[in-house]
Amino acid sequence: MDRDRGERMNEKSATREAESEAALSRIPMEESWGFCASGDGPPAAGGVLRGFFWFDTANELLSFVSRHIAWLDLQPLHVDVEPVHARVQDALAPFLEGRGPVGLLPTALNHLLEGLTQIEWAGQLGVLSRDIGDTADGWEAAEGGMAAVVIVLVEPAGERLRAGPF
């Protein structure tokens, strides 16, 4: 690898890390957009790590996914990510053009990201909270048993919602 390419890759890695940290630590509002992603590497490589990434708009979410999703997983696997990234870009085109609902990101991308990262859910938090109600049973019914992955908390004022892995 030439030196310039290595420096560019390090800059992209630092940008990805900073943007990931910001999205993972953001406390979402009901109108926030987000996705839950998990590592798809083998258990021997560290198991499955999950995280919720939050954004102010659907466009910010899509921009992040477009730039970073292929490199997001932390599994120590030796995979050439460039071809995966190119296929992800092709699959994201309708979403970036406003022709695909964000909720279909898992269906559109997960087969391309197999062995790296899987998107378990994508959408707007307020819609998710209305769809599932306040109970873990509602989450299990809506998301096929993800109650063990997520807690949704409503602050006393009822204006802010927070979700996160445990």
Number of strands: 5
Question: How much helix is in the residues?
Answer: 40-55%
- The proportion of strand residues reads 15-25%
Unreliable residue stretches: 135-166
Number of helices: 6
Distance between the termini: 39 Å
Oligomeric state? single chain
Structural class: alpha+beta
Calculate the mean pLDDT score and round it: 76
Major sheet summary line: 3 strands, antiparallel
Radius of gyration: 16 Å
Shape descriptor reads globular
Number of domains: 1
Report strand order across the widest sheet: 2-1-3
**String of helices and strands:** HEEHHHEHHEE
How do the strands and helices of this protein lay out in sequence?
Layout: H1 3-25, E1 33-39, E2 50-55, H2 58-68, H3 81-96, H4 105-109, E3 117-124, H5 125-132, H6 136-143, E4 150-154, E5 161-165
Antiparallel strand pairs: 1-2, 1-3, 4-5
Summarize the structure.
With 166 residues, this protein is of the alpha+beta class. Helix content is 43%, strand content 19%.
